[in-house]
Amino acid sequence: MAIDFLYPEFEVVRDKDKCIGCRVCERQCANEVHSYDEDLDCMVADNAKCVCCHRCVALCPTRALKIVKTNHTFRENANWKGEHISEIYRQAGTGGVLLSSMGNPKDYPIYWDKMLINASQVTNPSIDPLREPMETRVFLGAKPEKVEFNSRGEIKNNLTPQLKLDIPIMFSAMSYGSISYNAHESLARAAEELGTYYNTGEGGLHKDFYKYGPHTIVQVASGRFGVHKDYLNAGAAIEIKMGQGAKPGIGGHLPGIKVGDDISKTRMIPEGSDAISPAPHHDIYSIEDLRQLVYSLKEASDYKKPIIVKIAAVHNVAAIASGIARGGADIIAIDGYRGGTGAAPTRIRDNVGIPIELALASVDQRLREEGIRNKVSIVVGGSIRSSADIVKAIALGADAVYIGTSALLALGCHLCRSCQQGRCNWGIATQREDLVRRLNPDIGYKRLVNLLTAWNHEIKEIMGGMGINSIESLRGNRLMLRGIGLTEKELQILGIKHAGE
Amino acid sequence: MSKYVIIGNSAGAIGCVEGIRSVDKDGEITLIASEPHHTYSRPLISYLLYGKTDEQRMKYRPDSFYKDNKVKKMLGKTVVSIDEKEKKVTLSDGREVAYDKLMVATGSVPFVPPMDGLDKVKKKFSFMTLDDAHKLEKAISPQSKVLIVGAGLIGLKCAEGINDKVESITVVDLADRILPSILDSDGSAVVRRHIESKGVKFYLSDSVKKFEKNKATLVSGNEIDFDILVLAVGVRPCVSLISNIGGKVNRGIVTDDKCRTSIKDIYAAGDCTESHDVSSNTNKVMALLPNAYMQGETAGINMAGGNVSYDNAIPMNAIGFFGLHIITAGTYEGECYTSSDDENYKKLFYKSNRLKGYIMIGDIKRAGIYTSLIKKRTPLSSIDFDLIKEKPQLMAFSRKSRKEFLAK
Amino acid sequence: MKRIYVDEKWCLGCHLCEYNCAFANSGKDDMSKALKNVKINPRIQIEEKDGISFAVSCRHCEEPLCVKGCITGALSVVDGVIEIDKDKCVGCYTCIMSCPYGAIMPSDDGVVQKCELCLKNSHGKPACVEGCPNRAIIFEEKE
């Protein structure tokens, strides 16, 4: 219907003087934007199909392409923005829930950018990380209350299972299904090389990846896909997924079309069937129920693996975290509202949950106040964009961070936020064989290693500037942070002073 | 230190030098040849005539070749006999050269059948050697009417070489088609049309009954006026050095897959030999430059103490006339697959799960993939035959084979 | 010796290698100038069908049938690299008949052309390898 016509959001701009008609753009666009017009003897574009993923731009050998946002407009209106109007047209036309991918893109405050890091001057010396040892190794897991001795006066090993991270960064849960085999292989190999962990997500563990087990966190989610004894014992830790920052309170749905042979085997569900993760775990309605699952998993893995409980950052996150710590979890993972997803209802993604910075500060504070901070480690995720974000997270009280979107960016993701369409031109969020092939793990894993190595250098540099030589001394060291442009309330929640104080 | 003597100075001989030197850097190599020239490529004489190459560029190897390979060359000298007991060869000037290992790469000479009145023709030429080409070039003029007897490779290459420099060319051949040794009748017709379009006139299934000084009368009764005659009826392998001492000779010198003759320490290569054609599983003379080189090289390596075999020879030809390219290989037997359009013609011959031979005219791209199937006797059941019929392509092979080809 | 190897597992069939090859051997310093309105005739060529694709270029064989069969001596092996002296070549196509990979092709100037690893053009190293977006073509030493 005419009402439903929406002018394309993006326009493909082609420099005809530069274009040599090699048709790489045409071959590389799974959205079929580009084509060769025989009558005109030139390349043409169907802008309506463009998702602005830049695959064509990046591969064009003569740099003849760019994508611009259209300047076509509705009549300007500060309240009824074009986005609202278009979405109403779409929903009025279809009657459907709007779907989106990746993290919340809305213009909410980003607290990372409102905190500044300290540096030493005169009174305590800064440290040069190129000349002096600098420790970024982290152990995740419960820490004992006190040192204990046996009758002969020897130290008793009262340590529960720990995860050893050479860098305070892990790859967050992304299932095989939501991302491709090659993306998974890249993450697994990078985790191995970097001395850290990647996370299977709720899609089970492909048989090819059992060999990366010592660097794998296996997830148990509400759908329990791919969960069996060998799976639980294959990884270095087990994560119970209670929630996800991009869609707190919502389950997951992998459409049957993406459940091919391999994924069906990995998830242990029939080929072509929809993989639906319920919103809740149907056996968990209380902290006590969660505790049962935690201990079931500990039993199943012979108390050799730390158990992680992952939750979305929501309003009463501090109280929930306290319950999780008391429920026997070794590690709490908190996912902020900017965390990514392969598909989520737009309204949920954009309006539910709270910023990870505030959640982290309140959880750390609450656990300290209750004297149980040592019982759990805290891992935060949900839009960690740089090493500076990591340093700030650790200073706010995190033990380590999870990165998802940043890792995908390293693999080539251009944040076009069209994952739900399954036609990822970069071979990441797709199961189409011809597209998956575009991500060569030999390249992908190396790029991940590069990124995290660079970040680790930067973390050391920033710590050195503060005169701190180990992550342990930075953790929860909120004196190292100052707020900028924040209200009293925000400063109070973050537990930091304002710049200048 | 071994003494190697090589008779000949073309592809077989050069292959032999390079074969020897790949094993033995120091042995004494003596190369004796009747022609006085630096080694040159005989097939290029037609290209020389129409200007696509020149004497410098048509050298088969660089000027420094003999020096680089420490070859003592005796050019312009002809070996008249071999003493296989004393292991020495005798030159026409009486000199003797001793050998430990001998290579006979004597090539072939034009074969001229008896023809009535031939002695009356003054300007008659053959077209085999550089000297032949020079003589012909001197003799022709824009007014020349050239008669070529023989519509085979040599005759037609000659026609191409001089077509722009003479008034007319007429070709006569007893066979019913041109290039009968390498083309079937349909393919031959395609090439014939092309050559005719350049002004060359053919009389086929016909022959010269009688020559007069400037006129030939054909069996059909046609009369052809000419002032230059080129005889390109055929060639005959030069086998006498071997046959004279009792070596085994059929049409050519018989060699085995090590390129040995039947006489101890004597090897042979090139147009003078007969070798095994794996496409037809018969022994035959395969007078082809690549074959000569391979035989020579194989012999050279074996002469110097190595142990290699040349056991996948097949007849094959790459040739072009006036811009129309032809590649053929193997044996034309078995079932056929044909495809053709206005400009291109292709025919594949296959039998007993093997590709036996092919003809490609016009579009000859990637023909070597077909050649390789014949030489390697690849079972057609192991590849996608429909794809390979369509065009030569590695896509027709298994993923595993392609990995062997491209990733190792 | 370093050679070009192709892994079809990673080939996207994007044909960039062909264009990079054509550009590297064009003698021009700008790809648009070099290839605008030009039907390219690259020395590396993609085969593709039903989702499988791979590039084919000279393998620089240790036992090169093209060199051994060359009737003019235009093809030779120089430090392991098979080179073509276009000045000597007369375009008889014996090499095309000989190459088991179909990696030698007629050139636009009436002779033949083949991959020479970009050693003789201004690029200096294989342009197909450098431009391959997915490392499907690599240039390395293998055992």
Task: Describe what this molecule looks like in 3D.
The complex is a heterotrimer of chains A (501), B (408) and C (143). Chain A has 16 helices and 21 strands. Chain A has 501 residues and is α/β, with parallel strands linked by helices. Chain A folds into two domains: 2-96, Alpha-Beta Plaits, CATH 3.30.70.20; 138-470, TIM Barrel (Alpha-Beta Barrel), CATH 3.20.20.70. Chain A has an eight-stranded parallel β-sheet. In chain A, helix 4 (181-194) packs across helix 14 (441-466), helix 8 packs across helix 10 and helix 11 crosses helix 14. The termini of chain A are far apart. Chain B contains eleven helices and 26 strands. With 408 residues, chain B is an alpha/beta fold. In chain B, a hairpin with a 4-residue loop joins strand 14 and strand 15. The longest helix of chain B has 15 residues, at 289-303. In chain B, helix 1 packs parallel to helix 8. Chain C has two domains: 1-57 and 115-143, Alpha-Beta Plaits; 60-102, Alpha-Beta Plaits (2-Layer Sandwich), CATH 3.30.70. Chain C is α+β, with helices and mostly antiparallel strands and 143 residues long. In chain C, the strands form four sheets. In chain C, strands 1-8 form a two-stranded antiparallel sheet. A two-stranded antiparallel ribbon of chain C has the order 2-3. In chain C, strands 4-5 form a two-stranded antiparallel ribbon. The B-C interface holds B 11, 15, 41, 43-44, 47, 52-53, 57-62, 289-290, 293-294, 297, 316-320, 325, 327, 329, 364-369, 371-372, 387, 392-395, 399, 402-403, 405-408 and C 5-8, 47-49, 52, 54, 56, 59, 65, 68-73, 87-88, 90-102, 104-106, 142.
